[in-house]
Specification:
The chain is α+β, with helices and mostly antiparallel strands. 52% of the residues lie in helices and 8% in strands.
């Protein structure tokens, strides 16, 4: 059994999506970000960057003590290797997946997260930031759209962890100030993944993290206000 420390953010949902696709046994350990549970000492032993998701594999390959993993890209790679799913075995196929996985965790996710923040959570509009990140996310959507022009999935003919990593960051495209109609190849890919049974199960009952709603000052402090000393 694998414990998934989870909140319904795009990064959390990508790991849940992997589990639903593979059928690996897992149990969700909810982490309330607004209550600051990500700063609890026990959680920091698993995820020293005080972020979700994180996992604890209580039955790792080869036996021995449980293995904990933080950072969503590392988790997807670990789970792909454990399950033998969604990662090519040949060198060329593997590097195709890895470079697009790293593209997501180093580019698409952080930039989409910034525009999501300034469009939804910022206490007041910051026009420069909104313009800056809207344009950068549009550029990244364009990169993905061109990539998908001649292949069904990001790394080629097969669905992989590159697709699992990217999809949850396209789900809130409206909050990112984007229309998928402007990116027809990306939209085709998006609709195909949205229709997969595992995707439907993953998102059933999930409230979008990018819906504007009132958050208290205490929640804002836990979500956005911690510095170096507090984590």
């Amino acid at each position: 059994m694998i414990d998934l420390y989870f909140a319904a953010t795009p990064n959390g949902l990508k790991i849940k999506l992997f589990f639903e696709e593979t059928g690996l046994p897992y149990r969700i350990k909810p982490v309330s970000l607004g209550k600051g549970e990500q700063f609890q000492p026990d959680f920091l032993l698993i995820s020293p960057n005080n972020k979700i998701p994180a996992i604890v594999d209580n039955a790792p390959l080869g036996g021995g003590a449980p293995i904990s993993v933080f950072e969503s890209g590392a988790i997807l790679l670990y789970l792909a290797e454990k399950s033998g799913r969604f990662m090519p075995q040949d060198a060329r196929g593997r590097i195709e997946v890895l470079q697009w996985l790293f593209w997501q965790v180093g580019g698409l996710g952080p930039m989409a997260g910034q525009i999501g923040h300034f469009n939804v959570y910022a206490p007041e509009p910051v026009p420069y930031a909104i313009d800056r990140y809207t344009r950068e996310v549009a550029r990244l959507y364009g990169v993905l759209d061109r990539r998908l022009a001649d292949r069904p999935f990001i790394a080629g003919d097969d669905y992989t962890i590159a697709d699992i990593a990217a999809y949850p960051w396209i789900v809130p495209h409206q909050a990112h100030g984007q229309s998928l109609a402007d990116f027809p190849h990306l939209e085709r890919w998006f609709q195909a993944i949205a229709a997969r049974p595992a995707t439907i199960r993953t998102y059933e009952g999930v409230e979008s993290a990018y819906v504007r709603k009132h958050i208290s000052e205490e929640e804002r402090k836990h979500l956005f206000g911690h510095g170096a000393k507090q984590g």
